[in-house]
Amino acid sequence: METLLTAFQLPDLESRFQARIDAEDKIEPKDWMPEEYRKTLIRQISQHAHSEVVGMLPEGNWVTRAPSLKRKAVLLAKIQDEAGHGLYLYSACETLGVSRDQLIDELHSGKAKYSSIFNYPTLNWADIGAIGWLVDGAAIMNQIPLCRASFGPYSRAMIRVCKEESFHQRQGYEIMLTLSKGSKEQKAMAQDALNRWWWPSLMMFGPSDQDSKHSAQSMKWKIKRFSNDELRQRFVDMTVPQAELIGLKVPDDQLKWNEERRSYDFGEIPWDEFWNVVNGNGPCNKKRLADRVNAHNEGKWVREAAEAFAKKQAQRTDSKLKSN
Ligand code: BYC
Asked: Whose CA is nearest to atom 3 of ligand 1?
């Protein structure tokens, strides 16, 4: 009986769900949703949360070596922001009925994906500038449309994340500007960082539209609003003039302004490298995962202490309520 009812009701529920999406209604955690919508969200939001958390590692390497106290304080604040982004995103994911421990286990076992970009090394201080400028710049380009994602908790988390990412992008650009105006060696450092981070930043937007297996459905559900290639093109168009302004050259011989499209044509992305990194074989994949697992294990006592403190507080509140 139940199976029969479901078979009859499902198309109806699905079409009502799609009608809500088409009408720009937000879907909230307790609303009915197709199982595939829920799974897609858990996949994307958890990958996003993992990226924020793993993204702290390449920057963390430079906290002790930042060139001034001011730079150190700014970098520390940025890294803390990324931890906060991870927390909002894990929380948004939990509203879909999956536990944070489960998600973290999947990251630590190597089963879950996180952004390819964080598997590249940060060799010198200019890399911190390039990450802020390019990586956070790409992240904003991708995440601004996610503020309108159809799932309420994800879209609301994105609003705050995007505000903070804008500061990150500016501090990165300002580092690059300072280096570009500095000595010949400093300018060369900035150019070298741009050379190494340019193509990996373009890869952050994911495979080309023809190879993106999830885009069509995610766009129908208004989780994604633009395709991977559309956002990548916008990023190129925004970033090339910024590079020119500080006297740096984008490392692409085929980069050329196309007057007809009013957009830049650019060279072929090294897709073999992208898939190699996504499949766990990039320059730092193994190190990042090992460092993350280590940080989690070393933080065990902090989690236990926080839990014991929260329990004690709850007991105190409880006994106060009883005595009143
Ligand atoms: N790296 O069908 P597709 C940040 C995977 S910023 C690794 O196009 P979708 C930060 C994809 O997961 C970075 N894997 O997928 C910034 C899928 O594999 P599965 C995080 C990638 O989901 C500064 C397969 O390739 N941002 O956190 O429609 C400081 C096919 O792809 C990548 C977000 O996560 C990649 N670059 O589109 C600190 C934003 N690209 O799952 C932190 C939210 C693709 O089938 N996410 N894959 O095994 C999105 O917008 C989308 O998930 C993507 C991919 C555009 C990334």
From this structure: 212
In single-letter form, the type of residue at position 82 comes to E
> From the CB of 172, is ligand 1 less than 6 Å away?
no
Pocket test for ligand 1, best of 201, 278, 281, 285 (most atoms within 8 A of CB): 278
Does residue 113 line the site of ligand 1, with CB under 6 A? Answer: yes
Distances (CA, A) of 283 to 130, 209, 265, 273: 18, 26, 29, 10
The one-character DSSP state at 213 is: S
Alpha helix ranges (H) inside the chain? 2-22, 35-54, 56-60, 69-94, 100-108, 125-130, 136-143, 152-180, 184-203, 215-220, 228-245, 271-276, 285-298, 300-323
pLDDT one-digit tens code per residue, 37-52: 999 999 999 999 999 9
Ligand 1 atom with the smallest distance to the CA of 51 is 27
pLDDT band at 7 (very low <50, low <70, confident <90, very high): low
271 CA from centroid of ligand 1 (Å) = 14
Ligand 1 neighbourhood includes 47 CB (under 6 angstroms): yes
43 lines ligand 1 (CB under 6 A): yes
User: Torsion-angle region of residue 206: left (phi > 0), alpha (psi -120 to 50) or beta?
Assistant: left
Half-sphere exposure of 182 (CA within 13 A, CB side): 14
- Give how far the C-alpha of residue 207 lies from the chain's centroid of Cα atoms, to the nearest Å: 16
What percent of the chain has a predicted confidence (pLDDT) above 70? Answer: 98
Does this model's pTM top 0.90? My answer is yes
Span 247-302, pLDDT tens digits: 999 999 999 999 999 999 999 999 999 999 999 999 999 999 999 999 999 999 99
CB 207 within 8 A of CB 178: no
């999947």: which residue's tokens? 106
Amino acid occupying residue 233: Q
In angstroms, the CA 54 to CA 60 distance is 10
In this prediction, residue 124 has a pLDDT band, given cuts at 50, 70 and 90, of: very high
